[in-house]
Write a structure and sequence with these properties.
Blueprint (H helix, E strand, L loop, with lengths): L10 E5 L3 H12 L3 E5 L11 E2 L8 E2 L6 H4 L2 H6 L8 E2 L3 E6 L5 E4 L3 H7 L4 H13 L1 H8 L10 H11 L3 H5 L5 H11 L12 H14 L3 E2 L4 H13 L3 E3 L15 E4 L3 H8 L5 H9 L5 E10 L12 E6 L3 H12 L9 E4 L13 E10 L8 H11 L3 H4 E7 L1 H7 L36 E3 L13 H20 L2
Parallel strand pairs: 1-2, 1-10, 2-9, 6-12, 10-16
Antiparallel strand pairs: 3-4, 5-8, 6-7, 11-14, 11-15, 12-13, 13-14
Helix pairs in contact: 1-11, 1-18, 4-5, 5-10, 9-10, 9-14
Length: 485
């Protein structure tokens, strides 16, 4: 039963029921606004959905899978999603990175365990990440919102800044052993761009630090459990969610005091561009999407026969070889060239959450980094990378489900060019998405705001883009109401 609350008389429409659209709707509803969410698909979730793709009872994540930023999200914690059915599960080891030599580097939630396993590079790993993990919550307070703000923890932010400004290739020089360099390279590859560019080190630093602070958990029952929990929270606070309701023109959007769009800048410009100030419309049109993900889901009988058995204890396995191998393939991809040995991420979520498996069949989640708009089939390249480090893998596969780049975009229109990150992380766009502004959520159209992962703080199932955008909308709208009195 919905919780009855005194309403403010304010109304809002949220377009898109991905994690950020739902977070925006929830924050507005908790503040007394009558909220209506319109979702094009037949189910909510966006990038946080799960389904039986290959075998009955075997659950695969359709996109997002591991959630260090989710379990650490201050907004989800404030809402207490556990009361709406969400449970986090942690693997024994967060991430493994095997090498062709048979050696493997392991990322544990415990920085002490990680340091102990990296030998001579252990102290260097602690020097790089120790203070960031220790101060992660304070850093997150300043970093997980628009860049143009007064920091609450300037000294800690100043300690992070010099490292964050550096390219991945420069930061990697801190490590001497192939294992530690590869482990860092795999984490840093989540920036999804050329390793030689300034600022590219920042995302890898935060991902590793968040892992040491919160681990890399999965949601019990699949990533879709996160958005289902948020959907229940929206309902409990009086919000209404309508699925199967695509919005292709402004005429379809109901009248409301506030409109929030969990959409790409291109989609937002399509709906409201003619009303936007010229400078903002130009920024939306110039916004660059990034490289693509080519996803392959496997159903396997038993466990992957990793050459190094430690990989069989890790929720995530990064496959790409040495740091130099990863750098080479990532730089080629950034230039639009498909690598023969692409960087591949493998997810073994069932290790932490056995409820995803059935009848001795386990789900394996994987995707490769490929060029933007890649039209080809990378299924064999992904399979070969797994076989490279797990001889005999092909023999245990009982089913394969491929999502090509065009299919990825069709599945979710926010993933233009197959970009699951919501925009390129090249140059200043890494910091200033979707445009340089004190309030980057505001579209320049009265009452209309962008709340997708193309706005700060960017990708991750943390809901903070939606929360921040809803906060901006409430401030502007209520300030306007007061000025009219």
């Amino acid at each position: 039963m919905a919780i009855r609350r005194d309403r403010s008389g304010e109304t809002a429409v949220v377009i898109g029921a991905g994690p950020n659209g739902l977070a925006a709707a929830l924050h507005l509803a908790r503040n007394g606004v009558d909220v209506r969410v319109l979702e094009a698909a037949d189910e909510i979730g966006g990038g946080a959905r799960s389904a039986e793709l290959l075998e009955p009872g075997v659950i695969h994540d359709l996109c997002s899978a591991f959630h260090p930023m989710g379990v650490g999200s201050p907004f989800w914690a404030d809402v207490d999603l556990a009361q709406y059915g969400l449970a986090w599960k942690w693997p024994e080891i967060d991430c493994a990175h095997p090498l062709d030599s048979g050696e493997v580097a392991l990322l544990h939630q415990s920085i002490d365990q990680t340091v102990a396993g990296l030998g001579a590079d252990g102290p260097r790993w602690r020097a790089m990440f120790g203070d960031l993990a220790r101060n992660f919550d304070d850093l997150g307070h300043d970093l997980l919102r628009p860049i143009a703000n007064v920091p609450a923890h300037p000294i800690k932010l100043a300690a992070f800044g010099p490292r964050a400004l550096l390219p991945v290739t420069v930061l990697a020089k801190a490590f001497r052993t192939p294992a530690a360099r590869a482990l860092y390279g795999g984490v840093a590859a989540h920036v999804y761009t050329d390793f030689d560019r300034p600022l590219t080190g920042s995302l890898g630093l935060m991902i590793a630090a968040s892992g040491h602070r919160y681990g890399w958990p999965v949601a019990e029952g699949g990533s879709g459990a996160i958005t289902k929990a948020v959907g229940r929270a929206v309902d409990a606070h009086g919000g209404v969610i309508e699925t199967g309701t695509p919005i292709t023109s402004r005429a379809q959007i109901p009248d409301a005091d506030i409109v929030l769009m969990d959409l790409s800048p291109a989609q937002a410009e399509h709906l409201y561009g003619d009303l936007m100030p010229h400078r903002i419309r130009r920024s939306y049109r110039r916004y660059r999407m990034g490289s693509a993900a080519f996803k392959v889901d496997f159903a396997v009988r038993g466990d992957i026969p990793w050459r190094n058995p430690e990989c069989g204890r890790a929720g995530t396995v990064h496959l790409g070889g040495t740091f130099d191998d990863i750098r080479r393939s990532e730089n080629l991809r950034a230039k639009g060239v498909m690598s023969d040995n692409p960087f591949v991420l493998v997810g073994q979520q069932y290790l932490a959450d056995p409820s995803r498996s059935a009848g001795g069949i386990n789900p394996i989640w994987s995707y490769a980094h490929v060029p933007a708009g890649y039209p080809g089939d990378a299924t064999e390249a992904v399979t070969a990378q797994i076989e490279r480090f797990a001889p005999g893998f092909r023999d245990i596969v009982v089913g394969t489900h491929t999502t090509t780049v065009p299919q990825m975009e069709a599945h979710n229109l926010n993933y233009a060019t197959g970009d699951i990150m919501g925009g390129s992380n090249d140059g200043l766009q890494l910091l200033l998405r979707p445009r340089a502004a004190i309030d980057p959520y505001f579209t320049g159209v009265d009452g209309v705001f962008l709340c997708s992962q193309s706005s700060p703080p960017g990708p991750g199932i943390h809901g903070l883009c939606g929360y921040n955008a809803a906060e901006s909308a409430l401030r502007r709208h209520r300030r306007g109401r007061r000025s009219q009195r």
